[in-house]
């Protein structure tokens, strides 16, 4: 076959070299059909109507000059004029007669597709521009797709509509801004056997975290029905995160699952698709099984590996997938290069911080990106008012679609009521490099046009919209200029999203991963209230009924409420461990004080009131106690799952506030009961927090039972100097720089080093006091674990100290 002259080419005759002939989408489909289907990746068969066919149509019908005349001297910032001219161009194409020989060959190949499946098969008809997926210019998603196309005449109409969609308003505007000639780009059309996802599920998949660029995960979004609503952002999908390194080793590495609302789905109707409500039962359950999540992730990794090899560089991928409700099979229906993080400069780390305390929160949702922006709000609920939008305003709307792109590119930020992180608003915001908050549910009601607001996505997870224009700073760190140090610099992590956000930092592991944030922010319920749920449900008093209602609201889809606690903890632990991989991640078991546990839902039923909680029932003393031992078992189960099911063997346990050697032995025995045993798992490390003076005076006895110590300088300072760090009256008496504190810290560093045991520090002291950090390095500490915002600064200071020490 002479592909240069062909009007139609089958997928199995196409590859990446054919982008000029069939566009990026069709070329990638051909590449997958030829090389990845043999590896087990399922791709529906089909063919491409070539760019030559498109150009033949334009030339034979005499359309090219008409199009150029219509778009001459266009100002894309004049929204009304853009809309009018775009509509005129599309009308010119749609009303033109397609050449008879072109119609004949398309219908002929549709007949061949019938031979493969059944008479008049349902097909998806997708646009594939020849300039699609170029570095720095992603044309993907600017043209139209038509689903459930059945019969020759309907197919020809859909092909022509795809060709006309090369001149949608957003495509015209995008080409103009990127400097591409309006008639210098051709269009190919994919005709692909339809996957009946209207009867099942569909969604998108990235082989990279789309918000932070963390490249060791596969991110999957899934919802019921056809995939259009996920891409449009009209539905909040389920989100799944799979860790690639251990997935490749055969582990069931689903390290994140977030339940989406999934309240509507799109199904077929007589005239295309229609939206229908999802049942309450289906909304509160995940729409993919674990086996299906792992299957998709495995395919995502194979596709990424293949295209990385093909391009000769690491190439994360952006894919669309669908499940056939009739056969139960999964399919990949599109794949293209990810074009935001894969083209970013990896030697520069950008950090955004509010420099004044946040004001009133007007709305919150899922953060897209990690930036901050401020400006005047512009609420637009209808596309007829797009021309009202002014450059530099913040767009507040229910949902965006591709026709909104001309104003999105001049917005300072975007906030939507609906949608998830793979919605249209999110995708465009990433490409534009502006912050976006999606899925707020209420922004168009709580924010008014003209309001001064600040959009804060700096956490990388929760996006906040504040009242007023708050001051913020944008910091740039040159990672390739940061010195290497002999002393290991690690990072302290509270939330899993903080770990993903800070994966760029030049740290060597996580020295302190806290469970308290996960419990407080994601679980919010006392573990014993979850464990006693069934018994509480039998009670008829008002307090019990209220507690049951709260728990049910926070644990949709869970009959076993304890499983919710383990799932949330395991996934949070795994995300922290994943960003450290393969470096160690020291996960500290819960160290809430009784007054803090009482603030959790149901906590007042299980926690005593103590006069001095700081020195009361906390840390190790809880783990073996009859009133908490079973709850500690849930923490052990979560850490065990992260290590053994997810494969994150770099995760170690850190035991806080151990008062006596006997107590530590009881904790180890309790952990063993719950399946965490150093004697049977030689890779499993257990460390203690060195924060009670007895840990130092009896150091040898403690070190006989553990793999080392991590100094908690806050509590150690408090107990050495007799301070109550919660008291304002004595807070200024002393800190880590006090000679008494430094002496005992020096002793434990010497002792651990002499016994070849790990010794590090994870308190705030080294971040707050450069002189204290200097003392630690000079004394020979093995690692300093710092808050993320001080890592870069402290690395330079440590390098200078090490230079002096070694000279």
Descriptive overview:
This protein is an alpha/beta fold and 807 residues long. The chain has 31 helices and 30 strands. The strands form six sheets. It has an eight-stranded parallel beta barrel, surrounded by five helices. Strand 26, helix 24 and strand 27 form a beta-alpha-beta unit. The radius of gyration is 29 Å and the shape is elongated. About 1% of the residues have low confidence.
Fill in the keyword field for this structure.
807 residues; 21% strand; 38% helix; alpha/beta; eight-stranded parallel beta barrel; elongated; 30 strands
Helix-strand layout with pairing:
Elements: E1 8-10, H1 19-35, E2 46-49, H2 51-60, H3 64-71, H4 79-95, H5 100-116, E3 123-129, E4 145-149, H6 152-164, H7 169-178, E5 187-193, E6 201-206, E7 217-224, H8 228-232, E8 238-243, H9 244-248, E9 254-258, E10 264-269, E11 272-277, H10 280-283, H11 290-311, E12 317-323, E13 330-337, E14 348-354, E15 361-368, E16 372-379, E17 394-397, H12 405-408, E18 413-416, H13 424-432, E19 436-438, H14 443-446, E20 452-456, E21 462-467, E22 472-478, E23 488-493, H15 496-501, E24 510-514, H16 515-523, H17 527-531, H18 533-538, H19 542-554, H20 561-580, E25 585-588, H21 594-597, H22 620-623, H23 629-644, E26 651-655, H24 661-673, E27 686-690, H25 694-697, H26 699-703, E28 708-711, H27 713-721, H28 739-754, E29 758-761, H29 765-768, H30 770-779, E30 783-786, H31 791-806
Parallel strand pairs: 16-17, 17-18, 18-19, 23-24, 23-30, 24-25, 25-26, 26-27, 27-28, 28-29, 29-30
Antiparallel strand pairs: 1-2, 2-5, 3-4, 3-5, 6-7, 6-12, 7-8, 8-9, 10-11, 12-13, 14-22, 15-19, 15-21, 16-20, 20-21
């Amino acid at each position: 076959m002479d592909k240069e002259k062909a009007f139609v080419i089958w997928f199995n005759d196409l590859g990446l070299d054919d982008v000029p002939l069939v566009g990026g989408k069709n070329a990638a489909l051909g590449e997958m059909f030829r090389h990845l289907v043999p590896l087990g990746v399922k791709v529906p068969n089909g063919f491409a109507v070539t760019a030559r066919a498109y150009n033949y149509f334009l030339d034979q019908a005499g359309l090219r000059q008409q199009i150029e005349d219509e778009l001459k001297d266009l100002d894309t910032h004049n929204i009304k004029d853009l809309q009018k001219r775009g509509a005129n161009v599309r009308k010119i194409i749609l009303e033109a007669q397609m050449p008879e020989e072109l119609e004949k060959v398309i219908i002929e190949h549709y007949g061949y597709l019938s031979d493969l499946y059944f008479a008049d098969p349902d097909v998806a008809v997708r646009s594939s521009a020849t300039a699609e997926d170029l570095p720095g210019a992603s044309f993907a998603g600017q043209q139209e797709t038509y689903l459930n196309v059945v019969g020759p005449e309907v197919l020809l109409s859909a092909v022509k509509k795809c060709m006309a969609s090369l001149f949608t308003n957003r495509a015209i505007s995008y080409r103009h801004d990127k400097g591409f000639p309006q008639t210098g780009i051709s269009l190919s059309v994919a005709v692909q056997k339809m996957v009946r996802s209207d009867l099942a599920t569909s969604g998108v998949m990235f082989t990279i975290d789309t918000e932070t660029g963390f490249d060791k995960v596969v991110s999957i979004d899934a919802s019921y029905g056809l995939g259009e609503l996920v891409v449009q952002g009209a539905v909040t999908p389920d989100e799944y995160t799979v860790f690639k390194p251990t997935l490749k080793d055969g582990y069931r590495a689903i390290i994140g699952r977030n339940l989406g609302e999934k309240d509507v789905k799109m199904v077929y109707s007589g005239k295309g698709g229609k939206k229908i409500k999802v049942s309450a039962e289906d909304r509160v359950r995940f729409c993919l099984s674990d086996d299906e999540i792992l299957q998709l992730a495995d395919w995502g990794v194979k596709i990424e590996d293949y295209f990385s090899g093909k391009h000769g560089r690491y190439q994360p991928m952006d894919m669309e997938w669908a499940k056939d409700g009739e056969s139960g099979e999964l399919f990949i229906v599109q794949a293209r290069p990810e074009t935001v993080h894969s083209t970013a400069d990896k030697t520069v780390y950008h950090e955004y911080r509010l420099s004044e305390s946040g004001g009133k929160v007007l709305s919150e949702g899922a953060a897209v990106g990690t930036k901050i922006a401020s400006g005047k709000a512009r609420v637009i609920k209808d596309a007829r008012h797009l021309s009202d939008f002014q450059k530099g305003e913040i767009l507040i709307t229910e949902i965006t679609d591709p026709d909104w792109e001309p104003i999105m590119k001049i917005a300072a930020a975007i906030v939507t009521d609906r949608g998830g992180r793979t919605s249209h608003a999110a995708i465009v915001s990433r490409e534009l490099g502006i912050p976006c908050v999606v899925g707020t549910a209420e922004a168009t009601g709580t924010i008014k046009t003209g309001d001064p607001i600040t959009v804060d996505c700096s956490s990388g997870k929760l996006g906040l919209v504040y009242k007023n224009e708050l001051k913020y700073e944008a910091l740039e760190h040159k990672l390739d200029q940061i010195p290497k140090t002999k002393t290991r610099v690690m990072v302290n992590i509270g939330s899993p999203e903080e770990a993903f956000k800070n994966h760029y930092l030049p740290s060597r592991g996580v020295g302190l991963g806290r469970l308290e944030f996960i419990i407080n922010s994601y679980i919010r319920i006392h573990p014993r209230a979850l464990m006693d749920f069934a018994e509480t449900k039998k009670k008829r008093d008002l307090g019990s009924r209220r507690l049951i209602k709260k728990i049910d609201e926070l644990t949709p889809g869970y009959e076993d409420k304890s499983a919710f606690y383990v799932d949330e903890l395991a996934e949070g632990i795994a995300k922290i461990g994943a960003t450290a991989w393969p470096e160690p991640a020291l996960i500290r078991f819960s160290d809430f004080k009784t007054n803090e546990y009482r603030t959790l839902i149901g906590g007042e039923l299980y926690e005593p009131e103590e006069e001095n909680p700081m020195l009361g029932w906390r840390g190790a003393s809880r783990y073996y106690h009859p009133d908490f031992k079973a709850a500690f078992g849930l923490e052990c189960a979560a850490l065990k799952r992260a290590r053994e099911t997810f494969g994150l063997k770099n995760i170690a346990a850190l035991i806080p506030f151990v008062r006596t050697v006997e107590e530590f032995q009881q904790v180890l025995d309790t952990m063993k009961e719950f399946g965490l045993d150093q004697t049977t798992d030689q890779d499993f490390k257990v460390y203690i927090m060195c924060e009670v003076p007895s840990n130092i005076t009896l150091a040898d006895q403690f070190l006989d039972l553990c793999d080392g110590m991590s100094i908690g300088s806050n509590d150690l300072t408090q107990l050495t100097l007799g301070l109550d760090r919660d008291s304002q009256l004595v807070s200024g008496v002393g800190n880590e720089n006090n000679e008494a504190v430094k002496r005992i810290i020096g002793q434990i560093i010497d002792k651990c080093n002499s016994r070849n045991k790990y010794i590090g520090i994870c308190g705030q002291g080294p971040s707050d006091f450069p002189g204290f950090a200097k003392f630690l390095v000079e004394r020979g500490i093995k690692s300093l674990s710092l808050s993320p915002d001080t890592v870069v600064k402290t690395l330079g200071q440590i390098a200078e100290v090490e230079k002096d020490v070694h000279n």
